[in-house]
Amino acid sequence: MNPRYQNKNIAVLGAGLSGTAAALLLRSQDANVSVLDSATENKLPESTIKNLRDHGVRVISGPAAETNRDAYDLAVLSPGIDPDSTLAQNFSSRNIEMIGELELGWRFCEVPLVAITGTNGKTTTTELVAQMLNACGQRTVACGNIGKPLSEVVRDQSKFDVLTVEVSSFQLETIKTFRPQIAVWLNFAPDHLDRYASVAEYHKAKLRIFEYQTEKEFAVVNASDYLPQIEARRLTFSAYDDRADFRLADGSICFETTPVLRLADVKLRGSHNIENLMATLAVGHLRGLAFEQMAAPLCAYEPAPHRCEFVRTIAGVDYINDSKATNLDAAEKALQAQTKPVVLIAGGKDKGFDFQPLRDLVKEKAHTAILLGEMANRIADDWREATRCEIARSLADAVERARAAAKTGDVVLFSPGTSSFDMFKSYADRGDQFRRLVHALPK
Fold first, then answer.
1. Which of these three, 65, 96, 127, is where a domain ends?
2. Can you give the pTM of this predicted structure?
3. 146, 137, 200: which is closest to 168 by C-alpha?
4. Do 64 and 142 share a domain, yes or no?
């Protein structure tokens, strides 16, 4: 029992997975916990509400949550709740100490932690690291921004030797002591400008992963990205920079001058995935593993759904589901990886950036762009001189239009380049619907 939280009045903002995990962790420490969510109770999952109340957690929802003026010793913010939201401002305006769910979980963590961030590739790399460590005898679990929240995992951490945690900029905004043994910086590109006032502000939030590290910890960083001075000891990787510690040479990933992994032996493709593998090898090296040990589990890794996932071939046309491309950088990498003429399906939620930076690549790779969602007309304005653009009314309409436009030997690439929340529950829902629509097409 941690006396720091015992009998304290603590508010948890957000009733999603992270908020529920935080609330149950705090209840296990005999804290008096209230979960507050701006959604009305009928919009929240009934099973979640019951679970919280069965554990003695008070649930306050709707307008009552946003105006609640009870006294609290601490507020825990779920990553999906914007600090500028009415709900969060009701607490910060009263100078109530506020931390995030990631920070709360960290405060209970008793084993080493590997934290992985980056605009793209976080989930793939987190899964790669977890699969590799487990196969090499270091018990771990992929958690955090994927799978179970850290606050849930730490309640049963005795069965792990190390935790492998995907962390987002939203989670890093509210850390105060979070200090991973190994922090991984995969890459950086503009994103989330619907939440951040500028690219610089987003970059600053990401950089917080290194903020509390000392010279005793490690930072695995992309040599192609500019990073300020950090205290941790660096190990670098790059598919493009020959000066990096992990680099490419003669079809292999090399550590310094020694080949450690042949690209022909792995199932991942594209330069972005090569860098994900490099970062994973660097983590294993810092954890004391031999490269010979690491090769087999990395070669066995299967790409996750929605990440340049091959769906099927119809009449000589390949259909690829890259719904996980929720920003321009991810869509750019997917396009760059294509070696056949492309019919591109793109568009979705307006996240505050334009698609002009992809114009030249689209002109080179795609003979047709099928555009949908909030961004459709704006993307068409950016790309009209680069390729033929069509506006689709729905994803089903987009798939039909792509089928009509594609010729034998083409690729239909579904790589939206932005978020899904204007039309779908999530990128996974969006990708699942695309897959179903493609499988429903006649041969």
1. 96
2. 0.79
3. 146
4. no
